[in-house]
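Treating backbone geometry as a discrete language has practical consequences that deserve illustration. Part of our work consisted of pairing the sequence of a single chain with a tokenised description of its backbone. What the numbers capture is local backbone geometry rather than side-chain detail. For completeness, the protein is quoted in full, as a sequence line and a line of structure tokens:
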Amino acid sequence: MCSWLGRSLSSCLRPFSRYARMNRDDDGSAGGEDDALLWTRDLEKHSHGEFSIAMVQANEVLEDQSQVETGRHATFVGVYDGHGGCEAAKYICDHLFNHLLKLAKETGAISEEIIRNALSETENGFLTLVRRAYQIRPEIAAVGSCCLVGVIWKGTLYTANLGDSRAVIGYLDRSKKIVAEQLTGDHNACMEEVRKELKMSHPEDSQILVLKQGVWRIKGIIQVSRSIGDAYLKRPEFALDPSFPRFHLPEPLRRPVLRADPAIYVRHLQPKDKFIIFASDGLWEHLANQEAVEIVHNNPRLGIARRLIVSALAKAAKTRKIPYKEIKKLDQGTRRRVHDDITVVVIFIDHEVMENKDFSPELSVRGFKDTVGSSSGFDF
């Protein structure tokens, strides 16, 4: 118990020079080249084309994690937007893909059920670790993470979502104009349908939703309605006492107020489908879906994830009436006043590559953990 907690804490607090998996790129064509808190891998290959990945930090402790795993027949994308700490997002990054790979190899296929089961095992595993650490560090019960997953297998795209990260596909319409289609729903109390769902499932609880400073929050605390972790809002045994005023519930929890079951969308990719943007909510706070796909469509692939982040930061700077060059000078923590941690993965779909059976890159890229890995074994 103590050893896991120590490893988890130390991984969150390491200096950023230790997170060498994605490198800052001196090519200024996409912007942000002198931003010390912006990292990128500008272009890599995956089993169905190419991808670009980037991340910018705002919080004092980096709470976003991400990964791309690709083998001969499949590509896996994960974006994990943590809150309350980094442990849940890091746990997902370390375990979810392995659960998925094990289950998929047992059946030789990818399916909605396998993705659900992999997420369920990840949730149960993290809650087990929370239970072990709870007596030493009870606040870990308030650590959670949104979880956005994409899997491309044999020409089919599966997306699974918990929280308010978002996947958006860019496709060409009949007039050859790029069109944005949102593949995932935002599980956020700001959405009317989410509020209706919460009220219907908790009719006895008049405080299931509380409007605080113009923002709807579940139990007056959290905006997302689905997550991995956040044990204190799922199980009474993880209740936090008044010494944690931010997370203390005045009445005992009768039943879970957050869910850990994902919404899953399946799409058979067509020639019109050109790319998918997977991103944490920090991007979508500043860029509309259509705006984001037009940026991707109208610019070179090299560094496109970085370009999206820079575009979002430029919007944030304009809103705050602070030049972006001044934002770059802010330290992590202070910078959170301007924008959130932002993670972006752009997956390009090259249909000629999908049809080429000899094209088989095997690569593992996990944001800010260590160097690029070898084959992920995603080859069933």
Remarks:
- The two ends are 35 Å apart (CA to CA).
- Residues 145 and 228 are 5 Å apart (CA to CA).
- Residues 1-28 have pLDDT under 50 and may be disordered.
